[in-house]
Amino acid sequence: MRWLRRNIVVIAGVLTLGYLIVPNLVVMVFSFNKPNGRFNYSWQRFSLDAWKDPCGVADLCGSLTLSFQIAAWATLGATVLGTMIAFALVRYRFRARGSINSLIFLPMAMPEVVMAASLLTLFLNLGARLGFWTVLIAHIMFCLSFVVTAVKARVMSMDPRLEEAARDLYAGPVQTFVRVTLPIAAPGIAAGALLAFALSFDDFIITNFNAGSTVTFPMFVWGSAQRGTPVQINVIGTAMFIVAVLLVVGGQLVSNRRKKTAATT
Amino acid sequence: MTITEAPPAAPATPPEPPVRKASTRKRLVPYWLLLPGILWLLVFFALPMVYQASTSVQTGSLEKGFQVTWHFATYWDALQEYYPQFVRSLLYAGTATILCLLLGYPLAYLIAFKAGRWRNLLLVLVIAPFFTSFLIRTLAWKTILADGGTVVGILDSLHVLDVTSWLGWTEGNRVLATPMAVVCGLTYNFLPFMILPLYTSLERIDGRLHEAAGDLYARPLTTFRKVTFPLSMPGVVSGTLLTFIPASGDYVNAELLGSTDTKMVGSVIQTQFLRVLDYPTAAALSFILMAIVLLMVTFYIRRAGTEDLV
């Protein structure tokens, strides 16, 4: 009983972790399932069929490619625009600062469905054709604020004396920016870009409103929840999971090694 | 509001450059930096709100076109017809937020104070779910909560389902297609958004404060109540917002894990907009939802300050 009392936090924490992780495990296990009907919800028997033919379902891999394209462009757009805003906010004093802060904060504090619906009214009123471009516009819009936040945090914690030192050593403004400022801000920009990519790639609600008949990967999954879930969805989910884990572990190893070499030199 | 929050504001403002007569070109630099991004937000975030406001007071039909007639009755009608969905959305989102706090706090505490060298691994495990598309993971709950499955079997044999059925959260020995399944999905989907801000604010607490409290004969529970929890309030506030706001507008969980009796307001907006094509009603509903959320957010901002949240 005393043991229980002492370790209650650990037990509760581990249970929560289990709650977070179990669905991922289910997705993985069910990528090896061979369902009887159209839906892949109950375990039948082990099979590698879906792994051998991940694109075996019509439109699945097309939607995946489209999602990658949109996420890549949205990341690029949001990162460039967001980084510029972040620098302006930290480095300069100017008027209308409060309203600009609110404008950046509001998209993050708005339920997605509200942004999705209002953006659709705009597009409908303008008579825009829904598709790739409307989705891209929407994604850049909602990723922007998150990039600003990530980059801003990094630039704020930067030591301004480093740039002064560069200027004292006769570096021009451009040189200072490219060789001093940008490398220091890089981790923040990278974090913002990663976040933007993840948000864009996984977005469903805003995309669903503004995509017209264009089908991204989340929309494909949504549609299949009505028509029948192919095992291939789980295969792609599992593959994405493995790739992401490898990237995280690899990144950790690289940064550890860098720290070590930095410590020895 | 963020995971990577900035350090205290003191060193944040770089020393103002010596005030020489800055040329006009130089003074315009911040505006040029802001222009494209802010323009993007104005045109594709702010302007749509105006369009939506105007759509909500229009009348007409799809064939004849819609005209602004200042028909505010749409709001009243929409509220009257769909208030169950509104109440349900707030109720489900609120319950999910409280559950996230109750589940997330111990884990954030564990990572911040007790994990030692496991800290990074645990943090990765918290964000690991994001590596798979959330729709696929939400569908996995259909398997986990399936009728006659392991989870339902255990809950049934512990007589938990009798209690929850009596409360109206489940029906008979089903969990799927009940309010409990929807709340379970909402809690699951937004839990990391609670844990991460909690963790950042807990991690910043000076461990010596705990020792000091202990030295002054505070018992662990008292230390938590009087020292740790108050200091983690910023995390609690941003975690609650980050969970409640998206949960209140979500319709994915309600559609995938629920039934027609568990529809949330997001579903209604989506159906009105994309299938019924009754734009004024949809716009009005969306506006009411926005108003409710904004009221909540301003209430919080009053207490925390914008600069802290962005």
Search tags:
heterodimer; A: 265 residues; mainly alpha; MetI-like fold; 12 helices; globular; B: 310 residues; disordered C terminus; ABC transporter permease (chain B)
What does this structure look like?
The complex is a heterodimer of chains A (265) and B (310). Chain A is 76% helix and 0% strand. Chain A is mostly helical. In chain A, α4 (60-91) packs across α11 (217-227). Chain B is mainly alpha-helical and 310 residues long. Helix content of chain B is 71%, strand content 3%. Chain B is built from 15 helices and two strands. In chain B, β1 (58-61) and β2 form a beta hairpin. Residues 1-13 and 306-310 of chain B have low confidence and may be disordered. Classes of the chains: A mainly alpha (265), B mainly alpha (310). At the A-B interface, α2, α4, α5, α6 and α7 of A face α2, α3, α4, α5 and α8 of B.
What is shown here, in short?
The complex is a heterodimer of chains A (265) and B (310). Chain A is mainly alpha-helical and 265 residues long.
SSE topology string of chain B: HHEEHHHHHHHHHHHHH
Largest interface: A-B, 96 and 94 residues
In CATH, the architecture of one domain in chain A is Orthogonal Bundle
**C-alpha end-to-end distance of chain B:** 6 Å
| Rough outline of chain A | globular
Widest sheet, order of strands of chain B: 1-2
Any low-confidence stretches of chain B, pLDDT <50, length ≥5?
Answer: 1-13, 306-310
Topology of this structure?
The complex is a heterodimer of chains A (265) and B (310).
Chain A: H1 2-6, H2 8-29, H3 49-52, H4 60-91, H5 97-105, H6 112-126, H7 132-156, H8 160-168, H9 173-202, H10 205-210, H11 217-227, H12 231-264
Helix pairs in contact in A: 4-7, 4-9, 4-11, 7-9, 8-9
Chain B: H1 24-27, H2 29-56, E1 58-61, E2 65-68, H3 73-114, H4 119-127, H5 134-144, H6 150-157, H7 160-167, H8 179-203, H9 207-215, H10 220-231, H11 233-249, H12 252-257, H13 265-276, H14 279-304, H15 306-309
Antiparallel strand pairs in B: 1-2
Domain ABC transmembrane type-1 (chain A): 64-254
Transmembrane segments (chain A): 7-32, 70-90, 102-124, 130-151, 177-199, 231-250
Family (chain A): Belongs to the binding-protein-dependent transport system permease family. CysTW subfamily.
